Amino acid sequence: MIGRRSIYKSPAQLQAMVEPGLITAAALQAVREHVAPGVTTLELDAIAADVIRSRGAESNFQLVRGYRHTVCASVNEQVVHGIPGSRPLEPGDILSIDAGAQFRGWNGDSAFTIVIPDPERPELVAARERLSQVTEESLWAGIAAMANAKRIGEIGDAIQTSIEASGEGYGILRDYVGHGIGRKMHEAPSVFNYRVADLGPEVKPGLVLAIEPMVVAGSEETFTEDDDWTVSTIDGSDGSHWEHSVAVHDGGIWVLTAPDGGAAGLAPYGIVPTEIG
Fold it and tell me: What is the CATH number of the domain that holds 170?
């Protein structure tokens, strides 16, 4: 009988996941620096691809059957899985970029949201920046919970609590969740962004999760567009997506896809990340 693969990594395996996380972070930072009105998401895709290749890695998104691009680029009512294209970005757009790198058989996965300034529509920009802020804060609340949690379900509880505490009435996508990550970009277990009755597996050294709240300004109901990838809100409300790959090890917690290991994001929670190895 073939045994079920453990969701927990060895110390050596955790160490092997550091570099793909840093490569993913570098690719996303390069993309962030080039986001501007008039730039196409296809151009941003090429920037991410160049960074990943220059570091000796490959895009793990391109390893997903049927997907040819390095990033997912979701604009406005598109929440996740948007395909890069020739549409130029416009002032006021809210853009979520998701990317990952595979290096020597190990994976990183991360995402951020950014709002393009528009002095002609300050209220729109403020509303979209608030959506992004609440989503990012919920991500860090989930990561902070992971540092002390006994079970994975406590992460989703913390994420939902953070979003509800904003008082904005935002929706949380239910059909798309976070996941384990390691040899494959998507592994067990699922990481829900909301409270669930079954708290799931233990949080202990060796666990690596991609935590990724996907939050919308209106109804959480979505549909997949005709390209069979892009997930958009039915009511046309804006979406935001933030993600990090996070490891628990014998010394504590480390955010693999943050150059500082998550120090800045975890500081408000009094948590100091510890480097792996």
Answer: 3.90.230.10
Going edge to edge, which strands form the sheet with 171-172?
Answer: 171-172, 214-216, 239-241
pLDDT tens for 57-114 read: 999 999 999 999 999 999 999 999 999 999 999 999 999 999 999 999 999 999 999 9
Percentage of the chain beyond pLDDT 70 is: 99
Helix axes 153-165, 122-148, angle to 10 degrees: 150
How many structural domains are present in the chain? 1
**Per the domain annotation, does 217 fall within a domain?**
yes
The average pLDDT across 140-150 equals 97
Which of 92, 120, 205, 211 shows the shortest CA–CA distance to 157? 211
Instruction: Establish if 276 belongs to a structural domain.
Output: no
The verdict on residue 162 lying in a domain is yes
By residue range, what is the domain housing residue 185?
11-269
Q: Inform me whether the pLDDT recorded for 1 exceeds 80.
A: no
- Both tokens assigned to 194: 């909301």
